[in-house]
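User: Show me a protein chain along with its predicted structure.
Assistant: Here is one chain, sequence first, then C-alpha cells.
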Amino acid sequence: MATLPNPLPLLGLPPGTLVDTTAGAPWHEPLLWYADEPAQPGDWARLRATGRPLGLLPVLIDGGRRGQWPEVWDLDPGETSYPGDHDAEDVLAEYWGEYASDELEDAAEWPGLAPAPAAGTAGTPDELAAQMADQLTGGARTALVSARRSADIPAAIGWSGPLNHENDVARLCAVLRSWEDRFGIRVVSLGFDTLTVSVSRPPTTVAEARALAAEHFAFCPDTIDSAPPNNLDAYAEKHLLGQETWSFWWD
C-alpha cells in the first residue's frame, strides 16, 4: 500500500511506544505511535490538531480483555493493498453472496448500497469523533497513524483484526471510505479484533436503517451473529437507527 512520508520519528510526542514490527519482523518505518498512559478527555482533539498538518491521524488503541497491544498484533502492511483500488459495493456484494444465504433467516439478493441520510448530527464528523473518543477512553491509549483519511487507518498499519473474514483489510477500508462519504464516519478505536467508528449522519428512518443493515452484515457477519436474532430488521432498529457509534467484532 502506498503511504505518506512518515513524520512519527521526528514529532515530539508524550511518552509512548513506536511500533515498527510487522508479523514478527522489523518494518522500514514506524507504523504507529501510542501513548504509555490511558487516554484522557481532550487527548484525541489535541493529537489531531498536532498530527493532521503532518499527515497523521488519531485513533484509540485498545488492548482488550486479552491485553494485546499493537506490538504483538500481526500487523502486515506489506500484504495490504490500497483502499482506493477497490469498489465498496463490489466488496460488499461479494461478501453478501458468500455469507447471507447460510447465516441469515431473511436473506435475499444483494440489495445494493444504502442511501446517504439527508441530515446529520450537530457538529462536524471530526468534532463528533473527538466527543466519542472522550467517552470511550477507559483503558484505551491515544495513537497516531500516518494515513490519508480516517477510513485508511486499518490498511495503513496492516491491521489483521478481520483476518478470519478478510485477509486484505484494504477491501474493508474501501467500505469505510464509502461510509465516510455517506454517513460521516470516523475510525475512533481499534482493538486486536474490534473496530469502533463514530457516525455523524446515522440513519434517521427505519427504511434507511434496514438498507444499511445489509452492509453491516456483509462487512462483519459476526456483528449480526452476536446480536440475535439473526434478523436484519431487528438489528437495524436496535443498533443503527439514530446511533452515532457502530462497533464491529470479528471472531
